From TrEMBL:
One of its GO terms (cellular component) is plasma membrane. The chain crosses the membrane at residues 32-57, 103-123, 143-164, 185-204, 216-235, 265-288, 308-328, 348-366, 378-397. Signal peptide: none annotated. NDH-1 shuttles electrons from NADH, via FMN and iron-sulfur (Fe-S) centers, to quinones in the respiratory chain. The immediate electron acceptor for the enzyme in this species is believed to be ubiquinone. Couples the redox reaction to proton translocation (for every two electrons transferred, four hydrogen ions are translocated across the cytoplasmic membrane), and thus conserves the redox energy in a proton gradient. This subunit may bind ubiquinone. NDH-1 is composed of 14 different subunits. Subunits NuoA, H, J, K, L, M, N constitute the membrane sector of the complex. Residues 441-457 have a biased composition (Low complexity). Belongs to the complex I subunit 1 family. The keyword Cell inner membrane does not apply. Its main location: membrane. This is NADH-quinone oxidoreductase subunit H. It is an enzyme of class 7 (translocase). One of its GO terms (biological process) is aerobic respiration. Residues 416-457 are annotated as: Disordered. The lineage of its organism: Bacteria, Bacillati, Actinomycetota, Actinomycetes, Micrococcales.
Length: 457
């Protein structure tokens, strides 16, 4: 069974626990077909412009973190540097390896680049607004299982990676493609499981209904563990530092796109950054209230900042907070080891997230049974209990770890004999040299005082 089918089956019985709420659903009845095309074009331009900005932003921020200016020549503050690099990349020679499968070699970057844009179609960028005389949601489309569409599209995007590595006809791209595919598929499982808790709290997999369910309380509070798991998996899903293991320069050169150049390479480059915006937008929608204003601001003048085009502003602010998080990780952390990262995903994230999903099911049932659906009070109580249990478990685990380290610690003597084993051994830092043992000195003395006459005798 596919991941999307498993999540749909797992959440089928959960929605019956959720009471019927007065939640507005995205209404596209006043949206003609040509307006949908206009919105699709605007989403495409929005992602392209933000990609140009985030590349400049990343280079400037990392430059500041490394005490250098970053791009500051082309255009004011270097803002046109990304555009200049794009033009240069497009004018480069387009090379195709001799042993490559040419059709698949061309198709792979198209799949990777196109799939990155499709997922953004179900993201609500704002509430219902007036566009060209029509009332339409700031969302391209919405379906009852919109979140599963994102996971399905992410699964299709993996084909672009594995086909790029295989079709190149080269060893390093093949290894990079296999490594990246295994990583993305592994962390898609944990990502999907982390979203199940949100489905339980909202009672829907429609993105517009999930946003409207967070009017009183953002899901980052009751589903805090799911949010932490999602943040880890979204970095692994996008192959970004410290998890860009498919592009280890010392191991696989450039990874699956080593043999690509010119516009084909640009498609992979564009797809990576658009995927960053997609997973960040999904995190904003699922955990941070989507386009809704922060709680303090939302209460001003009966929620005037939650209407009209204000929602787009809050959405973009939250989106760029995640983009800064991506950049901060790249400038701060080193690349982890591949086997450790995969072990962390399969042996820790997935089992713990499964246990969390079961716990949320019981918690949600207790909220509706004992607290009459009062989500805020029940959530605070449950989060407090879970925090106490987690602290107690961490304290016990830390004590056991310290005891294990104490028993397994090897005592290093402060003073050593450099000739104790018959061979000169240099001291470790902090150690003192002792006079050589008498036995070694005695065996070494005749050798050093032997005369040529004694040897002849």
């Amino acid at each position: 069974m596919s991941l999307a089918g498993s999540l749909a089956h797992a959440t089928t019985g959960v929605t019956s626990l959720v009471p019927t709420l007065d939640r507005p659903v995205a209404d596209f009845s006043d949206t003609p077909w040509w307006l949908s095309l206009v919105k699709a074009l605007l989403v495409f331009v929005f992602l392209l412009v933000n990609t140009l900005l985030v590349i400049w932003f990343e280079r400037r921020v990392i430059g500041r973190m490394q005490q250098r200016p970053g791009p500051n020549r082309t255009g004011p503050f270097g803002l046109l540097q990304t555009l200049a690099d794009g033009v240069k990349l497009a004018l480069k020679e387009d090379l195709t390896p001799k042993n490559a499968d040419k059709l698949v070699f061309i198709l792979a970057p198209v799949i990777a680049g196109a799939m990155a844009f499709v997922s953004f179609a179900i993201i609500p960028l704002g509430p219902t607004v007036s566009m060209f005389g029509h009332l339409t949601p700031l969302q391209l489309t919405d379906i009852p299982v919109a979140v599963l569409l994102v996971l399905a599209v992410a699964g299709v995007g993996v084909y672009g990676i594995v086909l790029a590595g295989w079709s190149s006809g080269s060893t390093y791209p093949l290894l990079g493609g296999l490594r990246s595919t295994a990583q993305v598929i592994s962390y898609e499982i944990a990502m999907g499981l982390s979203l199940v808790a949100v489905f339980m709290y909202s009672g829907s997999m429609s993105t517009s209904q999930i946003v409207s369910s967070q009017k009183s309380l953002w899901f980052i509070i009751p589903a805090f563990f799911s949010f932490g798991v999602y943040v880890i998996t979204m970095v692994g899903e996008t192959n970004r530092l410290p998890f860009d293991l498919a592009e280890g320069e010392g191991e696989l050169t450039g990874g699956f796109h080593t043999e690509y150049s010119s516009l084909k390479f640009a498609m992979f480059f564009l797809g990576e950054y658009v995927n960053m915006f997609t997973v960040s937008a999904l995190a904003t929608t699922m955990f941070l209230g989507g386009w809704q204003a922060p709680p303090g601001i939302a209460a001003i003048n009966d929620g005037m900042f939650n209407h009209g085009w204000w929602g787009l502003l809050w959405f973009v602010v939250k989106l760029w907070l995640f983009m800064f998080f991506f950049v901060w990780l790249r400038g701060s952390l080193p690349r982890v080891r591949y086997d450790q990262f995969m072990r962390f995903g399969w042996k820790f994230l997935i089992p713990v997230t499964l246990a969390w999903v079961v716990a949320v099911a019981f918690i949600r049932g207790a909220q509706l049974s004992f607290f009459g659906g009062n989500t805020r009070t029940a959530t605070l109580i449950v989060v407090g209990v879970i925090a106490v249990v987690a602290l107690a478990a961490a304290w016990v685990w830390d004590g056991r770890r310290a005891e294990k380290e104490r028993t397994s610690r090897v005592e290093v003597p402060e003073e050593i004999d450099p000739f104790a084993g018959g061979y000169p051994v240099p001291p470790l830092p902090g150690q003192r040299l002792r006079e050589p043992s008498l036995q070694v000195a005695a065996t070494a003395a005749p050798t050093s005082t032997t005369t040529p006459e004694a040897n002849r005798g």
